[in-house]
Amino acid sequence: MDTIFNSDSKLFKGYSIYGEWIVKHGLPTFNYTANPLTLKQAEWDPIVLPKTRRHPHVIGNTAIKAVVDNMGTASIFTETEVMRYIVSADHDKGGSGLTLIDEADGTTWGTSMYTAPEGVVSQRQFGPQFFSVLLENKGITVERELIMPEGDTPWVFVRVRVSAQEAKSFKLNEEWAVSPLYLQSLTRNTVRKKIAEMAVSYDVELGRQIARAQEIINNDDIDDDEVDGEFAGSPVELMLESLGSAPVDVKASDDKHPVLSISTDVELAAGETKAFYFRFGLFDDQPLEAPETFFESTIEVAKSRMVKAESDLAPEVAKELMWHSATAYGLVNRDDVLGGYTLNQAGNYGFHFGINAAARDPFLDSIPMMYVEPKLGLQVLRNTCSWADEEGALPFGLQSDKTPEGFGAKPSDMNLYALWSASEYAAVTGDLQAFDEMLPSHPEYAIAPLTLKGNLIRQYNYFHNVVGRGLKSHVRVMTGDWQDVALLVAGDHAKEMIEVGTSVLNTAAAAFILPRWAALLEKLGEADLAKQARDDAEDLAKVLREGFNGKWFDRIYGPEELVAGRDEIWSDVNGMALNSGAPTAEQAKSVIDAWKEVAENSPLGVRAMWPHNLNGEEAYGGIWVILNMFVTTGALKYDTDFALENFRKNALTSHARAYPSLWEGVLSGPDCWNAPESRRAGRTWGAWGEDLAGQDIEDDDPEAGMSMMSAQSFPVGNPHTHTALILSYIRLAGIDVDNEGCLLINPGIGSFESKIMKVNKDGSGWIQAEHTLTVKSVNGTFTGKGLIEF
Q1: Lowest mean pLDDT among 478-487, 638-647, 762-771
Q2: Residues 523, 741: contact at Cβ < 8 Å?
Q3: β-sheet with 56-60: strand ranges across
Q4: Are 717 and 697 in contact (CB under 8 A)?
Q5: Which GO terms fall under molecular function for this chain's record (predicted)?
Q6: Is residue 726 part of a domain?
Q7: What are phi and psi of 17, to 5 degrees?
Q8: Which of 467, 487, 520 corresponds to the end of one domain?
Q9: Are residues 429 and 573 in the same domain?
Q10: Residue 352 carries which DSSP code?
C-alpha cells in the first residue's frame, strides 16, 4: 500500500480548503477539518433549495446508501423497490446517526456539528465505504466510525471507541431519527415531506438490545388539496441494535416518526479505551458474529476488490483510481423489482429528482466494471436490458417506482450502448453462456421473457430497422441522442427533424460499436446478423468521414439544410469519431488541434461545445465527464500526449486545484462541470430549475416538478465522475477490445490491477478467466481459461 500512497506528499494531500487527504485503515481518506458553520466559502446554493452549508458524499453497498456529510451525520437511502430515504436529511443540519455523551455534571455533547461542544471542531473523515467522526472534549476522545457492510446487507455498522486521559464516568448514547421520504419523480420536496408526514407512521417494539420500528403506510390519511401523490413502496421494518455485551437502555420517542436510541454507562480508567458496536437499517434477524472484528474484516474485503494503479505519467490520477472504484461500487443498487442490479446515474437524478435516467448511462457505467467486477457488471447490463419493450426500444428512464417513462423524449442512441457493454463483457470474460440465460422483461410490458442474447438482438434490430438512416445516410436523431434535447436545434421543423434528421454522433458511435457487436454475434452463431453489422459499420465509417467539414465533424443534419456543429466543435461527436478509428490521420489532427486551441482556458477538460453562447453551462461550454472519456480514449489513437493531458485534467485532483473552495469535486461530482466563464464556475448546471426557482409556483402547479431540475441540487454521487476515469485509465494503460472480440493488451502509461487481472506498464501481466478467451498482447496471442499469463 505504501507504493500507492505517500501521505506526506502535497500531491496526495490535495488542495481543498476543507481539509486534506490522509491514509486511514490503509485507504485514501479525506480528513475534513474546516468548520462549515463559520467558514464563509462553505455556504453554497443548490438553486432549487435554500442555501446551505451541508456538504454531502455518498458511500454504499449494493443494498443501501449512506449520504454522509460534513455535519457528522448520515442519511440512509435505498432503491431496491422504490427510491426512498428511511432517514432523510434536514437541509441545514444534515441527517442523523450520532453519538452523544452525557457527563456526570449534566452536560451533553455529541459527534454532529450541532451537538459538538463549544469551540470544538471535529475531524470528519470520508473514506471508501466508511465515515468517521473524531473529536476530543474535556479529556474524553470519541471516535465514531460508520461502515457499509459488503454486498446486499441492508444496514450500516457503527463502531464507537471512547478513551480518556484520566478516569471518567459518563453515559454513551447511540441515536438515529427515523425520517421517511419517498422521491416521487420530479415532485417538490415540500410535497414529498407532506406525504411522508401524513401517510407514514411506525409501530415500535423495544427489546433488551434492539429497537424495532415497523412502518405503517396509509395513504388515506393524506389530506391536503395541494398534495398530488402517494407514499409508494412496501412498508419496511427498521432496527437499531446494540451488538455488545454491556447492559443497555433501549428507548424510542413518542413521535410519529420516532427517534431510536440505545444508551449505556461507561466507566473508563486513565488511559483506557472501550469500544461499542451497533447496527442500524432494515431489520435483519441474522445475528452478527464477532462484532469486535467486523470493521477490520469489512475493510479487508473492500480492499481486495478495489482497483490499484501506478503511473509516473499521471501519478495523481493513478492514486485516485482506488477511490473511484470504491465509490462506483457504492452506487450500485440491488433491484428487487426487475432483478439484478442497477447503476443509476444517481447524483441529482437519483438522490434529488427521483429518476433513473437515461438508459445509456448504466450501460456506459457498466463497461469499466467488466474489468473490475464483471459479474456485477453483467447484472447491471441485464437489468438495464430488461427495460426494453417488445419492439426493442428502451425508455428514456424509470420513475422512482421503476415505471418506464419517456419524459417526453424518444432518443435514438440507447440501444448502441447496450451492444457496447455486452461486447465488452464477452471479450473480457469469454462468458458466452451468460447470453443464453433467460432475462425477464419489465413487468410493465407483460411480454414473454427471452434470453439476454434475444433481448440484445431485438435491441439491435430496433436500432437497425426502426431508428435507421436519414439525411446524408447518417443515423437518425429522432428526438435526441446524447444531447437529450437535440430536437431543439430544429426550431419550427421538429416534426420533420424526427422523421429525417440525423445524428453524426450516432453514426460515429455505430461505426465504433457495431464491429465489436458483430464479433459477439459471430461467437453466438449469428453469422448473417454479424455480417450485416459489419457491413453497416463499414458503410457508416465512410459516411462519417464525409461528415468532416474541413475543421471537425458536423453534429446534426436537419430539414431546410440545417447543419449543427459547422461553426462550433462538439466534443461528443468528435470524441466518438476518433474512437471509431474511421477518420483519416489529417482529420484527426485537425480535430485535436481545435481542442488544443481552447485547452488553456479549460482546466477540467474539453468543452462540450466551443465556441458557445457564453453561458458556460450544460452543452454551452460545460465540461461533461463522460464525454471527456470519449475525447481521451479517441485521441489516444492519434495523439497520446494530448490524451494524457486531457485525462489528467478530468481528475478530481485537478478540480480541487482549480477550485479549492468548492466541495463538489473533492470526493465526487456531477455529470457536468461549469466552465470558467460561468458565473458559477466549477459548479454544475441549473437548467430549468434556475429559471423557475425564484418564481412563486404552487406545489400542485405542473411546473413545480420542473423547478426541481438543477444538477446543482445534489452535485455529487454521479458515477460518471468515477467510471469515466477508470475506463479512460484502462485504455491509457494499453487495455482494449479489438473488432474480433479479443482482449487487446499493449504497453501503456502505467500498471492496472483488479481482482480478475493485472497489466504491467510493459504490457505483460495476467487475467483469471472462468471461460475460454483470447488475449492479444505484445508478448503474443494466448487462448485459454484459468490463469492466463501474457
Answers
A1: 478-487
A2: yes
A3: 56-60, 65-69, 74-78, 84-87, 181-182
A4: no
A5: glycosyltransferase activity
A6: no
A7: -75, -10
A8: 467
A9: no
A10: I
Q: Is 326 helix (H, G, I), strand (E, B) or coil?
A: helix
CA distance 671 to 715: 8
Average pLDDT over all residues of the chain: 95
Task: Evaluate whether residue 315 is within a structural domain.
Answer: no
Say if CB 478 and CB 412 are below 8 A apart.
Answer: yes
- The upper half-sphere exposure of residue 546, i.e. CA atoms within 13 Å in the direction of its Cβ, equals 12
State in Å, rounded, how far the first CA of the chain is from the last one: 25
Q: Kindly list the distances between the CA atom of residue 677 and the CA atoms of 320, 593, 601, 602, 672, in Å, as whole numbers in the listed order.
A: 27, 22, 9, 10, 14
In the structure, what pLDDT confidence band is assigned to residue 4 with cuts at 50, 70 and 90? low
Q: Which of 731, 772, 776 is nearest to 752 (CA)?
A: 731
User: Residue 137's domain spans which residues?
Assistant: 59-304
Q: Is 22 inside any structural domain?
A: no
**3 state SS of 66:** strand
- Which domain CATH number covers 216? 2.70.98.50
Domain boundary among 449, 467, 485: 467
Residues 612 and 548 in one domain: no
Mean pLDDT within 651-656: 96
CA 384 to chain centre: 15
Q: Does 478 share its domain with 602?
A: no
Asked if the model's pLDDT at residue 430 lies above 50, the reply is yes
Please report where in the chains the cell 484459468 appears, as a residue: 786
Determine phi and psi for 770, rounding to 5 degrees: -80, -15
Close Cβ partners of 693 (under 8 Å, ≥ 6 residues apart):
47, 48, 686, 707, 710
User: Quick check: 82 and 232 in contact, CB under 8 A?
Assistant: yes
How many Cβ atoms from other residues are within 10 Å of residue 253's Cβ? 14
Question: What span, in angstroms and rounded, lies between the C-alpha atoms of 99 and 101?
Answer: 7
Looking at the domain assignment, is residue 619 inside a domain? yes
pTM: 0.97
Contacts for 289 with CB less than 8 Å, ≥ 6 apart: none
- Give yes or no: residues 473 and 463 share one domain: no
Extract the C-alpha cell encoding 726: 477508470
Q: Which of 438, 434, 512 has its CA nearest to residue 475?
A: 512
Cell of 508: 460515429
Displacement of CA 99 from its chain's centroid (Å): 29
569/575 Cα distance (integer angstroms): 10
Q: Do 403 and 445 sit in the same domain of this protein?
A: yes
